[in-house]
Amino acid sequence: MSIASNLNDIKSSLPPHVTLVAVSKTKPVADLMEAYNAGQRIFGENKIQEMTEKWEQMPRDIQWHMIGHVQTNKVKYMAPYVSLIHGVDSLKLLTEINRQAARYRKTINCLLQVHIAEEETKFGMDEAELTTVLTSDEFKQMQNICVTGLMGMATFTEDETQIKKEFTHLKNIFDKLKQSELSEKTLNFKPETLSMGMSGDYKIAIACGSTMVRIGSSIFGSR
After folding, report:
1. Would you say 110 and 145 are in contact if contact means Cβ atoms under 8 Å apart?
2. What domains, with CATH codes, occur in the chain?
3. Are 15 and 24 in contact (CB under 8 A)?
4. pLDDT, tens digit (0-9, with 9 covering 90-100), for 86-144
5. Using one digit for the tens of pLDDT, what is the confidence trace for 29-65?
6. For the whole prediction, is pTM greater than 0.85?
7. Which single residue of 30, 50, 105, 193 has CA 20 to 30 Å from 84?
8. Alpha-carbon span 10 to 199, nearest angstrom
9. 83-93: buried (b, 16+ CB within 10 Å) or exposed (e) per residue?
């Protein structure tokens, strides 16, 4: 199967309200261009340096999503072009993204990462930390970022019941925030995107309410 046919198969299986991020980390530009030529315009990378190199070589109508863990000292390299940063897990990181976005007189969209998995290795905030960040004066004063939703990763397991439980937990947090006064009163908090689900579990994630899935190996083949 070619990258183009893999991509079309996945796209045809997604509901219209779900956005596909093609996870292209470690893949060569030629592979990304095959997906691009088949109509894909949103690509996700997990290393800023690699993403920047690809951005420099590829068409300018691509939206680049940073889906990996972000170190504050690397934000400046992607600030000129990044469309969405998925894994924002601290106020400190938000502050730096806001600072770098201001340098380019732009607004950078971000998703706050929530820790829902049982594995210790996954990054993210818990519900209390999330609320603390969103209600803080520092956050409300940031004029160059917009938090457009949440992101989470389920435990890497075959147990579908557990995966479903974790995704449902994240959807509940998302819904609560969406219905809260925060989203009405805070100008830079517009919760519309729920990014959850990867190649192995995106169908469960969509059933649990995901609006954005990050799929790599099912499109590009295993790494």
Report:
1. yes
2. 3-220 (3.20.20.10)
3. no
4. 999 999 999 999 999 999 999 999 999 999 988 776 689 999 999 999 999 999 999 99
5. 999 999 999 999 999 999 999 999 999 999 999 999 9
6. yes
7. 30
8. 10
9. ebbbbbbbbeb
